[in-house]
Amino acid sequence: MPVVEAKRVAVLGAAGGIGQPLSLLLKMNKCVTELALFDVAPLVKGVAADLSHCNTPVQVSAHVGDAELEACLKGCELVVIPAGVPRKPGMTRDDLFNINAGIVMNLVTACAKHCPNAILEIISNPVNS
To answer: N or C end: fewer C-beta atoms under 10 angstroms in the chain?
Structure first.
């Protein structure tokens, strides 16, 4: 399988438990030059600030909420989507799938509009569904 060198990468769901360490790994990747972090939680601004202290040339930006999604996605060559909610007590796998499928559908629709040539990687619970 060929190596993909994506200069501009977006992480959608960057403030979550998977999104934060994944963003750190991408910040350290020498193939990445720009890292755009998106989440509906304002916490993503703190994640971006923390990552900007890592001594790499990768430029990090934070984008919060639907109003900033377009700016996050413009020009992206790779979009990683770890967005979604975790399973809560009493929630069935079907419930979890339906909630997270809706979240992912909205994000993928935005990708189709704002970065139609990007490669998408989707990581959302339930992972094996």
So the answer is: N
DSSP 8-state class, residue 48 = H
**What pairs with residue 35 in β-bridges?**
9, 60
How confident is the model over 17-57, as pLDDT tens digits?
999 999 999 999 999 999 999 999 999 999 999 999 999 99
Helix (H, G, I), strand (E, B) or coil at 113: helix
In sequence order, what are the residues at sequence separation of 6 or more whose Cβ sits closer than 8 angstroms to the Cβ of residue 102?
A: none
Is 106 strand, coil or helix?
helix
The vertex-96 CA angle with 91 and 97, nearest 5°, equals 145
- For the four alpha carbons of 118, 119, 125 and 129, in that order, the dihedral sign comes to positive
